[in-house]
TrEMBL record:
GO terms for molecular function: asparagine-tRNA ligase activity; ATP binding; nucleic acid binding. PANTHER family: ASPARAGINE--TRNA LIGASE, MITOCHONDRIAL-RELATED (PTHR22594:SF34), ASPARTYL/LYSYL-TRNA SYNTHETASE (PTHR22594). It comes from Owenweeksia hongkongensis (strain DSM 17368 / CIP 108786 / JCM 12287 / NRRL B-23963 / UST20020801). NCBIfam families: asnS, PRK03932.1. One of its GO terms (biological process) is asparaginyl-tRNA aminoacylation. Gene3D superfamilies: Bira Bifunctional Protein, Domain 2 (3.30.930.10), Nucleic acid-binding proteins (2.40.50.140). It is found in: Cytoplasm. It holds the Pfam family tRNA-synt_2. Its EC number is 6.1.1.22. Residues 271-298 form a coiled coil. Belongs to the class-II aminoacyl-tRNA synthetase family. It catalyses: tRNA(Asn) + L-asparagine + ATP = L-asparaginyl-tRNA(Asn) + AMP + diphosphate + H(+). This is Asparagine--tRNA ligase. Homodimer.
Amino acid sequence: MDHISIKELLSKKPIGTTATVKGWVRNFRSNRFIALSDGSTIKTLQAVVNFENTPEEVLKKITVGACIKVTGDVVSSQGAGQDLEIQATGVAILGESNPEEYPLQPKKHSMEFLREKAHLRPRTNTFGAVLRIRHSLSFAIHQYFHERGFYNMHTPIITGSDAEGAGEMFNVSALDKKNIPLTEDGEVDFSEDFFGKETNLTVSGQLEAELGALALGKVYTFGPTFRAENSNTTRHLAEFWMIEPEVAFADLDDNMDLAEDFLRKVIKFALDNCADDIEFLSKRLEDEEKTKPQAERSEMSLKDRLEFVADNNFRRVSYTEAVEILRNSKPNKKKKFQYLINEWGVDLQSEHEKFLVKHFGCPVILYDYPATIKAFYMRLNDDEKTVRAMDILFPGIGEIVGGSQREERHDVLLQKMEEFGIDPKELWWYLDTRKFGTCVHSGFGLGFERLVLFVTGMTNIRDVIPFPRTPGNADF
Ligand code: 4AD
Ligand code: MG
């Protein structure tokens, strides 16, 4: 390469040498000072233009958004917040940018505005930081599992089954839309379709990961998952990435231990490896908090919040205990909802989850949920009312992880499927594992974007994935 990245330049500090950098102009002040970004770091590099060796037509084209190449002497800088700068001996325009048309101006844009400019928003400080942290978390996750003897398993994206049994799937079909074949009953005849049956985009790689765990011992998936749930919230995407470890011979306690250790370690990794970006986002969040009324402001900075979670144990509470706590809590009239739950067996709303996290002041692991509100594959407890399920609730996020010990007994699983209206013929291969060498096993799913939300302190899940897919939005 004929140039050096700004990140490398700022870390090596080769004062007194000549260097070439390439990047995009963030700002151009007084016709002399260029703030250059190449995305390798949150930091911009100041390049000082020399009028004498910069032709007028080049000078004219140094505009915000233009891509340029700067060669010059690396000198120490007098400017606040920067160690060095480049005294340019040569500036070349690599790609012009018409300042009248370029949507990103050197000012603060709203998140809503930037969502409409998803093709350019990675060039902003905020999205640059988010994307670098996203990368680091992804790397930390693979490293975590690799170092502990897990094998990464690639599970299918197109599947013939509904892993969660929740019916929130995107149909995959290659049928001729103008000439859809119908059965005698007037239903779509998928036997004429590409795969000879009805297929969908996967909602979870869990069932296939279980097959992997019952062969390789410890596996994990890290892939895209799709849900056609029409939830227009700040926590839901139609396309999101999920990490799903699955471990043979692990019970629910082992599963909770793994999930907690895993979350704390990857958050610690981000703190250790993304300090500049976290500091920037911490400051950003602080500014945002200042716009809120005093009572609603968060007492902890982003960095403190991450350190707290990385350094402290999570609180484990059974569903039954949680319901007891909610029952004894005072209803919150001001917010027009009640924390009160009167009935054992109902699913918790996100407001209840938030209340519990606040109540304990730390991440909470809820376990042993009523069987009727959880998926068919979860291990039934001896009370025959609850299952060995767990959800991890995070401050400001709510549910970040969902997992369970799996029902390993063939007869019980078959009965559960029947109760849930799942055709055993559809999942014959899954049932087979319970017939041939079954064993206790457990796993969980972490919503990757919810983790990125937590670590970046962003408030909307659409702002932590490069190209969000939500109801009515798949433009880019
Ligand atoms: O709780 P869920 O539905 O669990 C499963 O899919 C299990 N098969 C996981 C397992 O045991 N292997 O989803 C797991 C996590 C949630 O806790 C949440 O973090 C995330 O996936 N998630 C979503 N994230 C963004 N947008 C959505 N629509 C999400 N739905 C679930
Ligand atoms: Mg869940």
